[in-house]
Each structure stands twice: as C-alpha cells, then as structure tokens.
C-alpha cells in the first residue's frame, strides 16, 4: 500500500512524507463543516471529481481531504490533499479596486469557501479505479478557529505552513529595511534581493523543518530584482514593499494563531 500527500495553495507548496492518519481519518472522522457529497471517475482521462459543499455558517480558509483509492488489481493508494485558500484571500484583498483584482475575482471570488457553496476538487488517478473514498478531516475558518476531530497532525501542518510564510515575510521586510538604512548603497533593492536568494538557497540545502518558506523568499527576491531594473525611485518602491509585507503579516496573523474548536490550540 502506498501513501502520498499533496498540498495545494498560493501561500506555499510543500511535500511531506505520508502518515497513518489518512487511515484513521477515513475510518473515524465524523462529518464537519465541509463534506464530500459525490465523486465521479472518468476512465478516459483518469480524473476523479469530488463535489464538496460547505455546510457550516462560516467561510472556510483551508480543508484537508483523506483519500483512499482502490484499483481493479486490488492495490490501494492512500493520501491526503490539502486545499489552502489563505493565499487567494490575501491576493484578492491586495488587488482590490484594480483591474487585475476584478479579473482575479471573476475567477476566484474573494478566495474563501463560503457557506452553502459547492466546489469541485480534481484528482488525477491511475487507470482502472474501482472505488474512491474521500473524507474531509480538517477545516479552518476565517475567524481563526478550526475543526480537526481525528487529524491533529493535519491541522498542525496547516499552521506550520502559515507560520513559515509569516516568518519569511518578516525576514524579507527586515532585510529590505537593513538595505534601505545604508545611505551609501546605490542599489538597495539588489542588495536585499541577493540576501533573500542566499537565505532561500541555504534553507533548501540544509533545512530540517518547515520554519521558512523558500518560495516566498525567492518570489520577493525576484520582485526586488524587477525594482532594481526599473527607472523608478528605488527607495520609495522598497518602502512600499515593506509596508505591503507588514500589512500582509498582520492579515495572516489571525490565520496562524488557529484555535481548535473546543478551546484547544
């Protein structure tokens, strides 16, 4: 029996080893705020479509699905799929009032999974699927609470990812501020970009836990390189980036400090 985990989100994407909670979740997880209503398998494309509904009265910001696939030859695949929505929520807020924001909202709305809303999750599977069991075992909400009746590890991974994103954004802002503080630096944007790229490279080569998000660091480094190449007031542009990151960290904080319903962190 093989296990795999897949994580989807704009905040970051990070693959980790599978754990036994997928089995426990499928067996014991009671229905929570989001449920899988139906699933459909297309044997021509080997695609499974899960139809999921938010049956709660709150906006959902992430959910984890424990999946068990059974095939005609008898072998079984078990894995988990995490759909992280916080990144989309932040992008929608950041682009609000712009043409890009309007285009984004036409495709993703405000990023959240609203009460009563139905959405499809698409899974790629192997040929000759005979059965697919899918149970949502972790849900986080817009108010910073969560349900995770049988999968505390899954909830922990969501919080870990979000904290890594926040810490990376804080690091980026501090590196930019340090570059700006040097009056003799003629190109502080490139100075900050190099330091961020170095931090990301070191993390990728030596990390042991998810304490930083290299994707965030590299994305910011690329943005700083763009600032360096443009004919603009680079110091003003960097100050605007710092203000934006500080605002993003503030918005993310409630989603990092998740409290499990029932009063447990």
Task: Please bin the fraction of helical residues.
Answer: 40-55%
Q: Give the oligomer, counting copies of the same chain as homo and different chains as hetero.
A: single chain
| Main sheet makeup | 6 strands, mixed
CATH class bucket of the largest domain: Mainly Beta
Task: Explain what the structure shows.
There is one protein chain. The protein is of the alpha+beta class and 265 residues long. It has 2 domains: 2-150, Immunoglobulin-like; 161-256. Helices cover 43% and strands 26% of the residues. It contains 7 helices and 9 strands. Strands 1-5-4-7-8-9 form a 6-stranded mixed β-sheet. The protein has a 3-stranded antiparallel β-sheet with strand order 2-3-6, with no helix packed on it. β2 (34-42) and β3 form a beta hairpin. It is elongated and about 65 Å long. The protein starts with a strand and ends in a 5-residue tail after the last strand.
